[in-house]
Design a protein that fits this description.
heterodimer; A: mainly beta; 5-stranded mixed β-sheet; 4-stranded antiparallel β-sheet; B: 5-stranded mixed β-sheet; 23% strand
Chain lengths: 182, 248
């Protein structure tokens, strides 16, 4: 950091009423539900008491099925002819979030495939960034996951029929790994 | 921690230079209690980022999405305002073509949301929701109504200062952030635990718009200017750019 850097704008919570500004039709459907090649990525968001978080926003940003980083619009108004890579799901009363999407492929062969994830909620004064890794042999050699030791498990999805299951724990013994960047 | 420091710097230990910019466990904001992460953020080195985007285009924006006073047949009640500014990275470069979403209470302090219990009237001509793409120099502009303060159940006689929620994307997903814009001179800011969770004077100032008479339009609307500086490091609460902050 140098003195020339501008002072960054501080984060604030998304609050309890985010839905009026952030909900839009098909926000959680990166591809149409049930379409060929689609998977469901779903799970629950829990607080430090193990209680569901009913007012979280989970956002994903991902590569397409060929490992390309999408550079086309369509994250708001969904398009049948292209894949935007962006999705947003508000959790329900059980803390459940769900996306219909395609399995992301790695940007380079042999590297892990993952969803980049942002989490917002009432009570979170700043954004949380995390990842959901697609399970597979590529994870074993990944230097970042290896360094996390036991906590790496909090970033790796579980294969279930029709897709992937992944829970996010904001606090507590199995707290999800949340990320900073350098 | 010593073990980690001896290895390549993949996992950063809790930074003792701390000095929270956003004190994410601010106890005055009760909802943090069971939701704030207790472990330090883990630093992901740049070579693992790899995901520019997402990209949003004009198809994301409807005709009156950035004019919240023209989304209904009639005009909303309240003080018409213009809120404009630029979205920049921390090197001062404009971030053009990025999506900015806003939501807010109406002039009476009421959100159009079913969970909302404040007994102030809804305005049939105001949703309180807007969306815009920044232009090439990073500029966004909204026309809206100044939101009212409203009570909330955090503590006895708790009132949120007037604010507009902002959701901003930036060039990379690492820059993704959500925040709130406040209005200058609001007497509720010193009493508000959400605003006070920003522990430096500069950080607090970063959330307060300036009244800008050059933005005001005669006989029509008052103007506010608020720039948004994105920092992809997601570590703003660990680092103070200009050294120690004054006490406040």
């Amino acid at each position: 950091m140098t003195d020339q850097k501008l002072y960054p704008t501080a984060d604030q919570t998304v609050g309890p009423y985010y839905a009026i500004g952030m909900e839009y039709p098909h926000s959680e459907e990166l591809v149409p539900h049930g379409s060929a090649g689609s998977i469901v990525l779903s799970g629950y968001v829990y607080d430090g008491n193990g209680a569901p978080v009913p007012d979280a926003v989970v956002e994903i940003w991902q590569t397409d099925a060929d490992g390309n980083v999408p550079a086309v619009s369509g994250g708001i108004n969904r398009r049948a002819d292209s894949f935007s890579g962006f999705g947003r799901s508000g959790s329900d009363d059980e803390g459940y979030y769900q996306f219909t999407t395609v399995l992301p492929a790695p940007t380079e062969p042999g590297k892990p495939a993952f969803f980049a994830v942002a989490v917002f909620a009432r009570g979170l004064l700043a954004r949380l960034h995390t990842r959901i890794y697609v399970p597979g042999p590529a994870l074993a050699d990944d230097p970042f996951l290896t360094r996390l030791g036991d906590r790496a498990a909090t970033l790796i999805a579980t294969e279930v029929p029709g897709g992937l299951r992944h829970d996010i724990r904001l606090q507590g013994e199995k707290e999800t790994v949340f990320l900073a960047y350098n | 921690m010593a073990q980690l420091e001896a290895e390549p710097p993949v996992v950063l230990p809790d930074d003792p230079s701390g000095g929270a910019e956003v004190q994410v466990d601010y106890p005055g904001y009760r909802s943090t209690r069971w939701r704030v992460a207790e472990r330090p953020l883990v630093t992901l080195p740049e070579e693992f980022h790899a995901l520019d985007g997402p990209v949003f285009g004009d198809d994301a924006i409807g005709q009156f999405d950035n004019d919240l006073t023209r989304q209904h047949p009639g005009e909303p009640i309240g003080e018409r305002i213009i809120v404009t500014g630029r979205v920049l990275d921390d090197d001062g470069r404009p971030i053009g073509g990025t999506l900015v979403e806003i939501w807010q209470a109406n002039a009476g302090g009421r959100y159009r949301q079913k969970k909302e219990r404040h007994p102030a009237p809804l305005d049939p001509n105001f949703n309180g929701v807007g969306r815009v793409l920044t232009d090439a120099d990073g500029t966004y502009t909204f026309v809206t109504i100044k939101p009212g303060p409203y009570p909330w159940p955090n503590h006895q006689n708790a009132w949120r200062p007037a604010h507009i929620h902002f959701s901003v994307f930036g060039n990379q997903f690492t820059e993704r952030m959500v925040t709130q814009m406040y209005f200058p001179g609001d007497p509720l800011m010193p009493l508000d635990p959400i605003f006070q969770s920003i522990t430096s004077a500069k950080g607090q100032k970063s959330l307060i718009a300036d009244y800008d008479h050059d933005v005001s339009v005669p006989d029509w609307a008052l103007g506010y200017r608020w720039d948004i500086v994105l920092n992809g490091s997601n570590r703003t609460w660990f680092e103070s750019v200009d050294g120690p902050e004054e006490e406040h």
